[in-house]
UniProtKB/TrEMBL annotation:
Protein name (record): GGDEF-domain containing protein
Organism: Oceanisphaera marina
Record SUPFAM superfamilies: EAL domain-like (SSF141868), Nucleotide cyclase (SSF55073)
Lineage: Bacteria, Pseudomonadati, Pseudomonadota, Gammaproteobacteria, Aeromonadales
InterPro entries xrefs: Cyclic-di-GMP_PDE-like, EAL_dom, EAL_sf, GGDEF_dom, Nucleotide_cyclase, Rev_trsase/Diguanyl_cyclase
PANTHER family tied to this protein: CYCLIC DI-GMP PHOSPHODIESTERASE PDEF (PTHR33121), SIGNALING PROTEIN YKOW (PTHR33121:SF70)
Amino acid sequence: MVGHINQTVAQAELDSSRGALLLLDLDDFKNINDSLGYAIGDKLLIQVAERLTQFTKHLDGVSLARIGSDEFVLLCPDLGHGYTSAKTRAEQLAHSLNEQFVIPFELDTLRLHLSASIGISLFPVAQLGQEEYLRQADTANHIAKQVAPGSHVFFSQEMADEIQDRLRISNDLQQALANNELDLYFQPQQQVADNKPVGMEALLRWIPPGKKTIPPSVFIPVAEETSLICDIGNWVLQQACACFQRWQHSSLPLGNLSVNISARHFHSPDFIARLTVLMQQYPGCRHNLTLEVTEGVFLENLTESRSRMAHIKALGVNLSIDDFGTGYSSFAYLRELPVDELKLDRSFIQYIDQRPQDKAIIACLLDLARTLGMSVVAEGVETEQQLATLAELNCPAYQGYLRAHPMSEADLIAWLEKH
């Protein structure tokens, strides 16, 4: 196929015409193999290939090849002489390709619904090696899978640069974990009524030697794409529990310690076993440790999540729903899950003193939490007006820059001693 691509690109350069390479990758094909077996997977691939062959048969000059287990390439020359017309035609082809998957595939007694993501690389591009087009389409396909199953994405250099940056961050982060470049900061949580400390949230920081601190918003999304987030999450839990147990020998007003848990970490096979060991190693954290998860974490698999949460509660660990109100926010699951706390997202708190709608939403959520016997922490409180409105609504606790920024362990101890 590579040789054919080279010839097609070379001919396009001679003819001053444009074409496209479409890389099609079946979505969640691995799950089909794992759940139904490889024999079914092979039959499905044969049907996909037959359907694509029928599709390309009526397209003048278009070539089809299977280049991987569930990957197919369409090489489409002569899509026009201008960039816009070629891109428009390639997009039409991508839509037509996706239509081939609207009808389910019949396999013996099975009816399987399938989709495919498509990455598109246009050619020719000045000073681009001919072997790069397939790599470009693969990069675009990777992004398409992140956008949504069954979507298509055109390659761009910005996209390639972003992927390179993410790869570099991933590699550097792996080294950072090994070289002890990660650190925990802590942001206090306080009572709205009297500012009395009631707990703290552990926040991860990456501080490379001799460089500026890298914020979590940069590296956490990269880590979440791989199992690296589990390694980091285990490190955070271990360090946070060790700190909390150490502090208990003082007379500091500690309250609860909150730690964020990612979806991948929460659902990892050894998560409960590791948490069990931690509670044995740091018994002072029992009934004082709160795991913060977003709504999406347990809605991925409600049955499994309910079971995991029951195990977590049995260990004496509390559970909190982070960023509540911004995700799925189906109140039905609140009566089914053993949740102790809701954290109100900063997007509602930001304008709570200015927008009656936001104030009304927070009032409803506070009433709901009280009825269900849950505690509440409002995040992102930055002004006295916001705090006053929360007091008016009888919100129990808050955290935010108004009273306390995230701080190192030493600064936290000094802050707690002062309060």
